[in-house]
Write a structure and sequence with these properties.
The chain has 11 helices and 9 strands. The protein is of the alpha/beta class. The protein has a 7-stranded parallel sheet with strand order 3-2-1-4-5-6-8, sandwiched between helices. The chain binds NADP nicotinamide-adenine-dinucleotide phosphate. The site of NADP nicotinamide-adenine-dinucleotide phosphate has 20 residues, from helix 1.
Length: about 300
Amino acid sequence: MRSRGAGGQGGGGDTRPIHTAPLLVTGAAGKTGLAVIRALAKRQTAVRALIRRESQRESVMAAGASSVVVGDMMKTAVYYQAAANCRAIYHICPNMHPDEIENGRVAIAAAQAAAVQQFVYHSVMHPHIEAMPHHWRKMRVEELLFASGLPCTILQPAAYMQNISASWPQITGNGIYRGLYRVPYAITAPFTLVDLHDVAQAAATVLCEDGHIGGIYELAGAERLTPAQMAAAMEQQLSQSVRAEQVIVPPDTPKPLRQMFDYYDQHGFVGGGWVLAHLLKRPSTSFASFLRRLKNNS
Ligand SMILES: NC(=O)c1ccc[n+]([C@@H]2O[C@H](COP(=O)([O-])OP(=O)(O)OC[C@H]3O[C@@H](n4cnc5c(N)ncnc54)[C@H](OP(=O)(O)O)[C@@H]3O)[C@@H](O)[C@H]2O)c1
């Protein structure tokens, strides 16, 4: 465990902040940002949240942030202000952002100006897939990080189990899609979905424990499941019939999403679960456990 502040005893019962200098989380009010803040709060780490809108302040504070900067993280001045006096940065770029590379440059420059001890980049599993430009852009940011000389760690999560939450009300409701898990790709395509809570816990581990500078960690769940198998798992949880169905991608779907669905259709999205389990020091969350939680919370 990284050293505690002056006078810290290092025991499990010591609840004082480990560091007085805060750790910056960007994209903080999004689903990833909030999960990471909650995981860091469990480690009594001071977190500064960079949010876009004042209305997001309450949610990040409730998650455990100790301070907030409001502004556009694409803007250099905002990022510099947010990074000032931080010991580390957990950089989350908004999902599928066309300017992710430029935003990466801004983040790296701000991290260098603030002389942070660690820069952790929330990348994606298989960033080198050219057929998915939002992945490819993350690979370019990783490349910028290598050249920056910053002490960095890169996390590469698989697709989140939580992405299913959006379809849950339809699957469990009484509408025409009751019992249908509808996906815009083959229902036989394999995935190793990861629980966002596990990703957040891994993020807190690499930020609060020693030995992770220079690491690039693929964070995938341990199970390889197709949408058809996911539907079967839902059926078991819900005691109602559920089946997976491939739907046509609506024509107004943004191009990057369409490209992702095409890729998923042909190849699925599969990684290895070993690294995540080792970071968590326990088995990663199973799909059945995730569904149980989803069912109990809905
Ligand atoms: N979803 C997955 O399965 C998955 C898997 C692996 C990696 N990832 C990566 O995880 C990252 C975060 O994804 P997410 O789904 O958590 O994102 P999200 O929920 O869409 O959150 C993005 C956050 O960034 C904020 N934001 C957007 N533009 C901003 C700006 N210019 N300045 C400041 N804040 C801004 C958004 O605020 P507003 O609400 O105001 O827009 C929102 O709070 C992405 O880079 C994604 O590629 C996702």
